[in-house]
Amino acid sequence: MKYFIKPSLLIIGVLFFNTLTAQIMHPVKWDFTVKKITDCEVELLIHGKIDDKWHVYGQEPSGDEGPIPTSFNFIKSENYELVGKASEKTLIKKFEPVWGFEINFFEHEALFTQKIKVKSDKAFDVKGTMEFMLCNDTQCLAPETVDLSFKIEGGKSCK
Asked: What is the rounded distance in angstroms from the CA atom of residue 93 to the CA atom of residue 105?
């Protein structure tokens, strides 16, 4: 009998764990790349592929009752300087039933860009975090934070 109990408990545990992990949804996949503009300036590209029927929100707040806007927090470094704030491309503005008013969001894909001035002639990483929220027509997921990391090649220093 004892030879039957341990394997049974193991199988039940595995099935329970698989059920829990199947509940976690990730309707957006992010990738981070770098585009050189000049010897002294690069653009950090934050690109998200969004599953059908899901939305990622823009950076502008929609008031106290709207979704959490997307935000960026870059770790300060002597190697670079932010040029302005992150910009966003291809935002859609339309009525969203979950919130009951017009709102700015992305469908299918999101693109954010952040320019930086390079202040080092050695290679370095730009690191930070991004917080965003996802909703579809019937539900919203809790805001999520992802780590950002960009490898910047060494080159001309533009202090």
From this structure: 7
